[in-house]
Amino acid sequence: MLANKKEFFSGVGLMVAFLVVLVIMFSPVFGGQNGLNYLDGLYNSISKGSAYYIPDLKIKAAKQSGNAITASVVMKDEKQAMETAPLFLKSGVMVNVTGSEIKVSGDLGSILTNCLEDSDQMFNNKGEAVKDKYKMDERLSMYNWWMALKALTKDLNKQKKFAETKFIGDINKRAVECSYNYYKVIPENISAKWGLVVFSLVFYVVYTMWYGFAILFMFEGWGLKLEH
Per the domain annotation, does 227 fall within a domain? Predict the structure, then answer.
């Protein structure tokens, strides 16, 4: 027996409407995408415009020119070491590969500048240039850069080159990672999409409350109440 039929069926109506909207959101009606994928792409596009740190990093990398290093870069396995060696060779440093270990000797500034050039190409969706440069998939090249810089940081830390490793970490996070994650994303200016952004944020709040009130009305209409 329902305690309040009007309230109960109001809750049912809200829940049905909630589920209808949910089905629409998960249908490919937003330019061939569902609503979640569309909004995810939109926010990625907007955030990409504010994540371009590479020009500033290039200026700082130039200051490392003349900083000669000798380091052991240990990769995951021999295959990855062979794939990674060309990254250092194109940087103009000496390279010797033994198993999964790459012995690197040369100018740190040249290594970092080359890495940033590749990151810049990827960030600007020009992956073909990176692919042609190393004769391998451009995403694989950037992944190997990320792994190589981590391994290089580990060895330079042992040499107490902490200023260098901090900067290398910045490049890995703000250039290599960003260029990999934002590859093929078309940047958008938030000013051109502000209406849609505001709508999506308001909709998220309203839609969450919508579900909550549907549950509340159905339970209260059914006769379930919280008691102290």
Answer: no
Query: How many domains is the chain built from?
Result: 2
Q: Are strands 94-98 and 68-74 parallel, antiparallel or unpaired?
A: unpaired
pLDDT tens digits, residue range 43-86?
778 888 788 999 999 999 999 999 999 999 999 999 999 999 99
Question: pTM score, two decimals?
Answer: 0.76
CB 147 within 8 A of CB 84: yes
Question: How is residue 112 written in tokens?
Answer: 């970092």
Residues 40 and 84 in one domain: no
| Residue 135 CB contacts under 8 Å (≥ 6 apart), including other chains | 86
Residue 124 lies in a domain: yes
Q: Check if the beta carbon of residue 175 is closer than 8 Å to that of residue 115.
A: yes
Q: Within a domain: residue 143?
A: yes
Alpha-carbon distance of 222 to 8, in angstroms, equals 6
Residue at 163 is within a domain: yes
Amino acid, res. 76: K
At 226, the pLDDT band (50, 70, 90 cuts) reads low
Q: Locate 196 and state its tokens.
A: 């849609």
Q: According to the model, what pLDDT value does residue 228 have?
A: 47
